[in-house]
Amino acid sequence: MTVEDSADLVVVGAGTIGGWAATFAAEAGLKRVVVLERGLAGGGASSRAAGIVRAQGGTPTTVQLGRWTIDFYRSQQARYGTDSGFRELGYLILAVTARDEREGRARVEMQRRGGLDVSWLGQAEARRVNPTLAETGHRGGSYAATDGAIDPQRNVQAYSLAMQRTGVHLRERTAFEGLRLRRGRVVGVDTGNGPIATERVLLTGGPSLRSVGKLAGLRIAAGGARHQIAVTEPHPAFEVERQPMVFDLGRGLYWRLEEGGLLFGMSNPDEKPGVAREIDWPYLRRMQRRLERMVPAARGLGLRKAWCATIDFTPDHQPILGPAITPGGERIGGVTIASPGGHGMMWGPAVARVAADLVVHGRTELIDVTELGLDRFDAKGHSRLAADPIALPFPLSADDE
């Protein structure tokens, strides 16, 4: 291999995790960082997301990931001269049942201990912060004024420019084909355009991370599932600068301002995991009817656009951050895994920061990653960790076979 075919780090995947992790690694001092992308940067889930960002995590770790991410989005313009379009809108996570309320109030106390400025709002208080919310059908919910949303396409542009400005080498239309190992350590990667010598590899890939893992001889409990998003036609009630986003947690339905109307998204927990190929119109219409019950102003509004995407998830809805471990329990030196667990916009930059720390320094101070490695999953992909309770209702298994 020539000098041009070597790297201090090879990152697989040019989505939100891969793009920001490559940038952070270059900023940390790695001279030659190469990013492999089988398609175009951001062409997968990163450009098709809803862009919602929250620090209201369901565990202390995810609270910290969310808080760091929001701080990062706010600092981007000063750091890179570009940004992901973050808007502070506030986020209301609804309780519908008495159990929802009990669990929600307990989460608020946990989040407060983690330093988050969050409060519990009763039914009337919830309607005061978001007057479009129905008077009945809910019991209020947890509210953080500092949560918000980014523009997914602008985020792809932001990390693409950041990679460019930090000297990262992006190789689009270049597929990862496997690892080259010597005595249990990585010494290179194979690609569709030839091998690259390296002693550090970061595997990302969002919904495709499981197949990336297979190419590397790993079993990664990350899957893909259909996620649907639609935007209504404009309405005066939504043509405002700020209005809190809302998550009907029990139904897996969320909504926020977009183009003078409402953007709403959902996933069907009863679907078999796999690649999204088309919109499930009956399910989308069912969720639209639910939206109209919760937001009376949305009744009868037409749809301006709708799309579906394959979004990633892990069975416990928590990130994967740690070394590569083979199905036989052997660690592959120099290879790190990073998955946002279906929360690429919410936690992506923080997950990328942790991944870069692990790659460059072998440790991180942002969060405790002890329990977030591949070793938490058994042979069937079941996790020993409890699932993060604030997540879309994805399947409990990543197995699509």
Architecture overview:
By secondary structure, this protein is an alpha+beta fold. It has helices spanning 16-27, 60-80, 98-113, 123-129, 152-165, 209-215, 281-294, 344-361, and strands at 9-12, 33-37, 52-53, 87-88, 91-94, 119-121, 141-144, 148-149, 169-172, 176-182, 185-191, 196-197, 201-203, 223-232, 245-248, 253-258, 261-266, 303-313, 320-325, 331-339. The strands form four sheets. The chain has an eight-stranded mixed β-sheet with strand order 6-7-5-15-16-17-14-18, with helices on both faces. Strands 9-2-1-13-20-19 form a six-stranded mixed β-sheet. It has a three-stranded antiparallel β-sheet with strand order 3-8-4. Strand 1, helix 1 and strand 2 (33-37) form a beta-alpha-beta unit. The longest helix is centred in the N-terminal third of the chain and has 21 residues, at 60-80. The mean pLDDT is 95.
